[in-house]
Amino acid sequence: MSMPLLFTPITLRSVTLPNRVALSPLCMYSAKDGLANGFHFSHLTAVARGRAGLVFTEATAVAPEGRITHGCCGLWNDAQVEAYRPIVDAIIGFGSVPAIQIAHAGRKASVQPPWKGSTPLRAEDAATGSPPWECFGPTSEPVGPSWHAPTAMTEAKIQETVQAFAAAAVRAAKAGFRVLEIHGAHGYLIQAFLSPIANKRNDRYGGDLAGRMRFALEVTEAVRAAWPADLPLFFRISAVDGTAEGWSLDDSVVLAKELKARGVDVVDCSAGGVSGAPAFRANDSGQPLRTRAERPPGFQVPYAERVRRDAGVATMAVGVIIARDHAEAILQEGRADLIAVGRELMYDPYWTLKAAESLGCDPGNKMWPDNYGWAIQRRSEIMAAAGRR
Ligand SMILES: Cc1cc2nc3c(=O)[nH]c(=O)nc-3n(C[C@H](O)[C@H](O)[C@H](O)COP(=O)(O)O)c2cc1C
């Protein structure tokens, strides 16, 4: 039997991923002063121990004001490099490739973590050690009525932020990361500039598509110049805003071509977020789909497929990809080059190894770390003898 594509290595620049499964970036909201800690170590290394080929950190802020919450990781100082280093080393030790997503939350910064409602921090939260901070956006328009009114970014602030992304890329390389992703999705700063819903500027960073793309492309150019030339660069997009007047899939194809021309190797195709809501997709008539039931498995895969086909760039598909044979089919059908898995890998860090077993390419549990594999093999024999899986 030929090797399933999910377990066929892929080489991007000088980096070979042992398989096509990526842990999608997942905020843990558990850092202090932007420093990764033992929780991040256990979160990320569990998935590496489970043999995901590519392991992404959470959105890591390039500046303090670019955090979503007080608990977000950052990469604006060297102590944060040192905090990530043991995690990077452990991921490599498991044979996975360590990857980092760098981000700026823009006008969606300064909120509570999800388990406290994701609501904007208030002055009274200072009493519990979580004061709000100044947020920045393309204009002073907030995401919605209950959100912080951001400070409209001057050109000087835009340039400072471009440089913060570049500096974070340098630090990411120092920490030993081998793949870097720019977070250009979910209504955070870069996507707020891209989307006509959020970007109402009338200078050269707003207006038409070229103007709205300018900030994203300047960040990409600065990061590509700062990030080692032999290492791959990813860019996460919100492929659609999900409303008729918003960012469209056609816009994403234009952007992806520009990103590719600037040295982006993989476009990671997510969606939504500019209006504060999670990723929604538009239905065929352009109406947003707003219920969980309307986000079936693989609902964002058409975006990865279209961008891959029409921009001629490698893509990563993400969003409710749960079944192993579904992940394999997406690759077999040429709809994406990599599969990012988020919540399913939180639920089961061994998802990748179980995929290998169920796709028939790890019959002897040889893909498990040695110290687990022999025992898991015994377990399999016992289960088989008992007529169970
Ligand atoms: C707890 C949690 C944290 C997330 N944090 C990030 C993040 O830091 N950066 C990002 O681009 N997406 C983030 N996302 C979105 C995921 O990366 C992923 O795109 C989304 O969960 C859909 O994939 P899934 O259905 O496999 O979970 C987060 C999602 C969850 C559930």
Biggest sheet descriptor: 8 strands, parallel, barrel
Q: Give the class-level CATH name.
A: Alpha Beta
| Overall 3D form | globular
What is the level-2 CATH architecture name? Alpha-Beta Barrel
The CATH homologous superfamily corresponds to: Aldolase class I
Number of domains: 1
A few lines on this structure:
The chain is built from eleven helices and 14 strands. It has 389 residues and is of the alpha/beta class.
Describe this protein's structure:
This protein is of the alpha/beta class and 389 residues long. It has one domain: TIM Barrel (Alpha-Beta Barrel). Helix content is 35%, strand content 15%. It has eleven helices and 14 strands. The protein has an eight-stranded parallel β-barrel with strand order 3-4-5-8-9-10-13-14, surrounded by seven helices. The chain has a two-stranded antiparallel sheet with strand order 1-2. Strand 3 (21-23), helix 1 (38-49) and strand 4 form a beta-alpha-beta unit. The protein is globular and about 70 Å long. The protein starts with 9 loop residues before the first strand and ends with a helix. Mean pLDDT is 94; it is low at 278-287. The site of flavin mononucleotide has 20 residues, from strand 4 and helix 9. The site of flavin mononucleotide (FMN) has 20 residues, from strand 4 and helix 9.
